[in-house]
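Worked Example 4.2. Consider the chain below.
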Amino acid sequence: MSTQTIFVFYKLNNDSNWPSLHLNNDWHWTGSGITKTQLYPNEIQFNGPKQYKTQIRDYLNIYFLQLKLAGVVKRFKIRNSYKP
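Applying the procedure from the previous section yields the following structure tokens:
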């Protein structure tokens, strides 16, 4: 089974608590860190089976959109490679 990685780049708006992230289909959080760009200074990575990549990407988009609407993140983007 082939695995894939999804990167989410984002900028925090405040230090509010994040709601729980419920990944499924064998996808999991891999790590997080910082970038060298001010537009998206934070990043988080997820890995899992290629066959569920579209579903997880859609879920992450909704999750981060909710964080943006709640004022937790200022902006975000989801990528298949490490290119903030």
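The two ends are 27 Å apart (CA to CA). The mean pLDDT is 92. Compare this with Example 4.1 before moving on.
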